[in-house]
Amino acid sequence: MQARLDFFNNPVAAKIFKHLSAAGAALKDAGLPDSTRELVLLRASQINGCGFCVDMHTKEALHAGETGQRLHLVAAWREATVFTDAERAALELTEQGTRLADGAGGVPDEVWERAAKHFTEDQLVALISSIAVINAFNRFNVIVQQPAGWYQVGQKL
């Protein structure tokens, strides 16, 4: 499989990805736990069917110390006992924020309140921003059919 377009060697795409990557990097200073952030990135990528991002964030999470068991259960987090209440709230917000078109009226107040119960305002900004940025990357990769499996941990794209 080959991508429809080579985003990694296109100068316009490079400018866009530079800014999206900078936004993602800025989130690391907001106090959202790295493990929560990786779970969020993985879940949104699963929902959007972005194989490239699922591959990337699974590998990055494993490298950062996340367990295979938890990563395997992200897609079924509601039935899994391995996630904290805060992680569950973040995953729920991720699903609602990623599936905006499926809801009538956006993210329900109850979902927001569960997340706000576990995270500070800065962490909520980081959480929302992580959801937005990964959804943007997912859409780029799905639209161009970016193949998955070749990503290496720490690779700068």
From TrEMBL:
GO MF annotation list: peroxiredoxin activity
Pfam families registered for this protein in UniProt: CMD
Boundaries of every Carboxymuconolactone decarboxylase-like domain copy: 23-95
Signal sequence, renumbered to the chain: none
Keywords: Oxidoreductase, Peroxidase
Keyword Aminoacyl-tRNA synthetase listed: no
Lipid metabolism listed as a keyword: no
Entry superkingdom: Bacteria
PANTHER family: 4-CARBOXYMUCONOLACTONE DECARBOXYLASE FAMILY PROTEIN (AFU_ORTHOLOGUE AFUA_6G11590), BLL7811 PROTEIN
Protein name: Alkylhydroperoxidase AhpD family core domain-containing protein
